[in-house]
Design goal:
Layout (H helix, E strand, L loop, with lengths): L14 H21 L5 H33 L2 H25 L6 H32 L4 H20 L1
Helix pairs in contact: 1-2, 1-4, 2-3, 2-4, 2-5, 3-4
Length: about 160
C-alpha cells in the first residue's frame, strides 16, 4: 500500500484519507486488470496478486485499528456500519482465498475476480459515503493517534510480507 501523504490536524497521517487512498489504488488495479485483455494471463495474475496483497493489508488495518476506534467512539449507527463492514470483509477474504487456489487462466478465476471487484468497489463506496462521515466525527479527538497507529501497523504488515 502506498504511504498516504494526507495530513490530519496535527503532524500525523489522516486515517480516513489513508483509507480513501487505498480505495483509489485498488480501484485502479481493478481497472488495469479489466484493460489487460483476455490473453494477458501473466499480467492479470500479477495484478490480481497485487490486489490481494493490498486488500489484505488494508483490511487488517481497518479491522485491528480503525473499526474498533469507530465502534468505541460512535453512536449505534456507527456500530452498525462497522458490523456490516466486517461482514463485507469476510466475504472478500473468502473470495481471495478461493482465487489464490486458482490460476488466472481458469474460467472460474475471471468470474470470481469480477465478483471480488464488484464487492470491493461497493464496500469502498459505502465506507466513503456512510462510514467515513460518522468516523470523522467519532475520531475527531484522537485522529492523529489513530492515523499513526494505522501507519505503523501498515509498515509492520509490509515488512512481514517482504520477509
Amino acid at each position: 500500500m502506498a504511504k498516504s501523504k494526507a495530513k490530519s490536524k496535527g503532524d500525523g497521517v489522516n486515517p480516513i484519507q489513508m483509507l480513501k487512498d487505498d480505495h483509489r489504488k485498488v480501484k485502479q488495479l481493478f481497472s488495469e486488470y479489466e484493460s489487460a485483455g483476455e490473453d494477458a494471463i501473466t499480467k492479470k495474475q500479477d495484478i490480481a496478486d497485487k490486489v490481494f496483497d493490498e486488500l489484505e493489508v488494508h483490511s487488517s488495518i481497518e479491522e485491528e485499528i480503525f473499526y474498533p476506534a469507530v465502534r468505541d467512539n460512535a453512536d449505534e449507527e456507527g456500530s452498525r456500519l462497522v458490523a456490516e463492514a466486517i461482514e463485507e470483509h469476510r466475504v472478500v477474504k473468502t473470495l481471495i482465498d478461493e482465487l489464490r487456489e486458482l490460476d488466472a487462466d481458469d474460467e472460474q478465476f475471471e468470474a470470481k475476480f469480477k465478483v471480488l471487484s464488484e464487492n470491493v468497489e461497493h464496500h469502498a463506496d459505502e465506507e466513503e459515503t456512510e462510514m467515513f462521515p460518522v468516523a470523522k466525527d467519532a475520531l475527531a479527538d484522537n485522529v492523529d493517534q489513530i492515523g499513526q497507529e494505522m501507519q505503523r501497523r501498515r509498515m509492520e504488515l509490509l515488512r512481514e510480507r517482504a520477509a
